[in-house]
Amino acid sequence: MSVIVSRIRENEKNRIVTEGKNGERVALVTGSTSGIGMAIARRLAEEEFTVAFHSKSSVVVGQSLAEAHPGSSYFQADLSDQTQSRNLISEVLSRHGRLDVLVNNAGISTTIPHASLKEASPEIWRSLYEVNVIAPWTLIAEAEIALRQSSRSERPSCILNISSHAGIRPKGASIPYSATKAALNHMTKLLALSLAPQIRVNAIAPGLVDTPMSKDWTAARKLWEERSPMGRGAQPEEVAQIASMVVANHYLTGEIIISDGGLNLT
Ligand code: NAD
Description:
45% helix, alpha/beta, Rossmann fold
């Protein structure tokens, strides 16, 4: 028996809490005080989930979101800091006693023309990798045991990574940003294999979404209006609806779901 399996069995015996404090399943959504993350967290809270909201700095917004959804909570953590990333999972578990769904939504972007190679400095590469790739990895690694504990054969636990269409096609705000999202997509598939069947792992790869991150992306907005079959970018709630479907389905794993209004067809 592997070390991990014996640890899980030991933990099964010592399970602290069998249901969330409201008898509900618990979802942590990183970066959930704005944009796509907030829409996903609200949607899950309106469904059956006790939600742990999180952000790097918007404490007042996070606390008011948690207050608006009974049983929910808010945690502040800078995910570019490994210690804070690890603490985030332990704080969520000590507050709620379990974790069923982890949505790795928090991310950063930098706009650099693709031909300006020297502008994409090693510092920029490292900071993007830290938040967009290493932080999701750390959170998943820290949450693995809890996710396995809450998993049932008829209802596996769920990890959902928010990547980008730029991680699939040679597009995006900058080459380093796109490369981080390609890494996240590949990590999604690799983990889907190694964490199954207790934990499903999927990603949504949005195109343009109307959020604070994309507010200055005028060229992208024009591109979506002129070239995408749907003629516009997405609203965060439309991505949240896909997230809700991915969480609700108990069979889907290893999928990267492109949500770009059909731009990839043109
Ligand atoms: P946003 O700026 O509204 O949200 C980003 C969130 O990430 C914020 O809540 C912020 O607190 C959090 N965050 C950033 N750095 C952090 C750090 N160091 N520690 C902790 N949290 C941190 O933008 P959004 O558009 O909602 O982005 C959400 C996700 O969607 C990101 O991963 C982004 O790459 C991805 N995405 C967005 C678009 C788009 O067009 N908006 C397209 C494709 C993918």
